[in-house]
Amino acid sequence: MAIRNLILATIVIINLIIISFGIIFTPQWFWLLLIPFPLMILAFYNSTQTRHAILRNYPLLGYFRFFFEAIRPEMRQYFWESDTDGRPFNRRQRSIVYQRAKNERETVAFGMQTDPQTIGNEWAAHSVFPVHIENHDLRTTVGNHACKQPYSLSVFNISAMSYGALSKTAITALNKGAALQNFAHNTGEGGISPYHVNGGDLIWQVGTGYFGCRNEMGMFDEDLFAEKASRPYVKMIELKLSQGAKPGHGGILPAAKNTPEVAAIRHVVPGTDVMSPPAHSAFNTAEGMMHFLQKMRELSGYKPIGFKICIGDKQEFIDICNAMLTTQIFPDFISIDGSEGGTGAAPLEFTDNLGMPLYDALSFVTTTLIKFGVKKHIKLIVSSRIVTGFDLLKVIALGADACYSARGMMFALGCIQALKCNEDVCPVGVATQKPQLYKALDVQDKYVRVAQFHRNTLRATVEIMEACGFKTLDDVSADKFFRKVDNINTWSFQQIYFKDTGKLVNSHSAFEPQEI
User: Fold this and answer.
1) How far apart are CA 41 and CA 83, in angstroms?
2) What is the pTM of this model?
3) For residues 448 and 159, what is the distance between their CA atoms, to the nearest angstrom?
4) Are 221 and 211 in contact (CB under 8 A)?
5) Which CATH number is 285's domain given?
6) What are the transmembrane regions (predicted)?
7) Are 290 and 299 in contact (CB under 8 A)?
8) Which DSSP category does 77 fall into?
């Protein structure tokens, strides 16, 4: 109260002095009221309003609190954050993407900055007899016996990011980059936009809202789906059950990003918040899902069909595996998203507290599919914080066949991790629908960076494989990767994730019982 009265008294006195000088000497003094008089009005208003207690007690000084709070993320990132502190990606991770995307020097000097004795530190066992791998274009074929149009998929691809969440220039650059380097681009659940069709192979994701293949009631439309799924650039179809950042919640497209163009692509009302339902309306059981996958397979002309899931209740995935055996319908691939996956907008509780982390989910899915004897039919694609060759090889060691990267590809486009994806004010034009912002993203420059990031990441992956003696991806095994689990012990991924199952030789094998 004393401080508030002091502020009010001070600002009143200043205004009275200026008014007095204007009356006594010259009216020119009145021009000085342009600043203190509005401040006086504002101070008196704040001292009586009831919404902000800090402004009521500190009518003018309280604004400094809001100002410094607003610039806190930038101040932390630019001045106080170390190279290894940032979240969700630290500066070291962001820098390696920028360097590879720009084809610049990517070596580091003077040794490692992380502490190898820190709990959680990871490393791979190299070989004293390194090998040489001629082919750097690492790929896997997706498509089981029921598929008539199998697809040769790169092990490193663009994860699901919809047009609407990302700008038209960002989507265009991503797709042109995929075309240049011959890897796949997942559309995200927002459907196929004109900006997705720039020569790159597409994985068409169909979510609970059935955007792009829905009728006026929001239900799945077989004719619309068949027409789009048959397009030659659509190589695979992914049915989205859930995603890591908001499992069981459904997608969110803020009204500000739902332009008439976006709405036409999705078949929704423009200018409204678009909320994907948490669950699918086309099925509600595991067996129903298998039959729906088969319907999509037939309507697409027997292209590879799979589904995306963030593991929650383990029993539900076991039920899905039982449904595969009961129906004898096997997806061509399963995409696994860890709870650490990213999104433009999600409730805090869903982002931080729901879903299984990627490594636990992937090892569980791998183990379960092999136990059910169905892994031979299904390829596993994973996403969540994969930006380096080491990230990629770690998940392959746990059973993955290929990877997605979303935020890594965004960094290649120039993303600075401003953490404003949900506000439509992305400063580099990646996650916004505002023309004045996204026009700054030069497609001709950025698509080359996307391609270079992909190429250089695969090169780094091959270099690690050579150093570890892995001649092929099938040689990448869980017993060659290690993590410090406490102050004394370092365990292999084999011991951590497959200790109750036996040795996982590679992602296509059965388990061989072995003492660990």
Assistant:
1) 46
2) 0.86
3) 18
4) no
5) 3.20.20.70
6) none
7) no
8) I
